[in-house]
């Protein structure tokens, strides 16, 4: 029996969808047949735009901008079937040194904004006969200590909790799931982890032996957005290559201890 992953006729909004992991997600949704709208605070050079997508400028932390964005999507396409809350991130800062303003900004982008955009999308989806699907991009930082990005890790743990709650509140019309993403190779990988030698050393600690590709995250999102996942809601899907082995195990292996 064929199991087609077909999003033809669906309209998807991907926050932070023009670069990095978001671009991989957008590409996967386009490949599955969806009409994809990406958004970010900055404009996209038409020469760099992903084929099959349109782009909108929006600060997803601003309620008025989010309402206007969702309104434009519905006005242009007549519906909104899929929301992917991907926009997020945080610079490195030790918790003892970071200011309250810094923590507010990290929580605002990584927790408050996904809720804000989800609220606007849900209001549309609840009125559609076919409802909709919301996929929140979370992180392995929600599952383990996140030194240097403590507020980010806490925000992502909040996203996973939020996902479970919204899946109950907004059922049966809207399914809500999250994807806990591990290390992923993007155009910013070297900036975060160093050059090829450092990245290779990090990849050796991952059970699958490498970082994810953005399109691999996109495949998981496309599945969750599709009818193949019609009975999946409130789930946390791990996309981390097997996770992070215990530190003692990594030390043993580096010392060739049996």
TrEMBL record:
Keywords: Oxidoreductase. SMART domains: PKS_KR (SM00822). One of its GO terms (molecular function) is oxidoreductase activity, acting on the CH-OH group of donors, NAD or NADP as acceptor. InterPro entries: KR_dom (IPR057326), NAD(P)-bd_dom_sf (IPR036291), Sc_DH/Rdtase_CS (IPR020904), SDR_fam (IPR002347). Residues 10-184 form the Ketoreductase domain. Pfam families: adh_short_C2. PANTHER family: 3-OXOACYL-[ACYL-CARRIER-PROTEIN] REDUCTASE, SHORT-CHAIN DEHYDROGENASES/REDUCTASES FAMILY MEMBER. Belongs to the short-chain dehydrogenases/reductases (SDR) family. NCBIfam families: PRK07856.1. This is SDR family oxidoreductase. It comes from Nocardioides pocheonensis. The lineage of its organism: Bacteria, Bacillati, Actinomycetota, Actinomycetes, Propionibacteriales.
């Amino acid at each position: 029996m064929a199991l087609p992953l077909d999003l033809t006729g669906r309209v998807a909004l991907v926050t932070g969808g023009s670069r990095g992991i978001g671009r991989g997600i957008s590409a996967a949704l386009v490949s599955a047949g969806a009409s994809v709208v990406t958004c970010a605070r900055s404009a996209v050079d038409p020469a760099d735009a992903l084929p099959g997508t349109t782009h909108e400028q929006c600060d997803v932390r601003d309620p008025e901008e989010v309402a206007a964005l969702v309104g434009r999507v519905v006005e242009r396409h007549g519906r909104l079937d899929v929301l992917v809350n991907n926009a997020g991130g945080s610079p490195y800062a030790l918790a003892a040194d970071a200011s309250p303003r810094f923590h507010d900004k990290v929580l605002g982008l990584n927790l408050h904004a996904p809720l804000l955009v989800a609220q606007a999308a849900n209001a549309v989806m609840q009125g559609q006969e076919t409802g909709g699907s919301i996929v929140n991009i979370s992180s392995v930082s929600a599952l383990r200590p996140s030194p240097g990005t403590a507020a980010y890790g806490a925000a992502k743990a909040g996203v996973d909790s939020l996902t479970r709650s919204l899946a109950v509140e907004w059922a049966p019309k809207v399914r809500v799931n999250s994807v806990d993403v591990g290390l992923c190779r993007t155009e910013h990988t070297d900036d975060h982890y160093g050059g090829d030698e450092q990245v290779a050393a990090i990849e050796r600690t991952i059970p699958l032996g490498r970082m994810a590709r953005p399109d691999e995250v996109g495949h998981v999102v496309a599945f969750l957005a599709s009818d193949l996942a019609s009975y999946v809601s409130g789930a946390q899907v791990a996309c981390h290559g097997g996770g992070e082995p215990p530190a003692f195990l990594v030390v043993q292996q580096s010392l060739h201890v049996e």
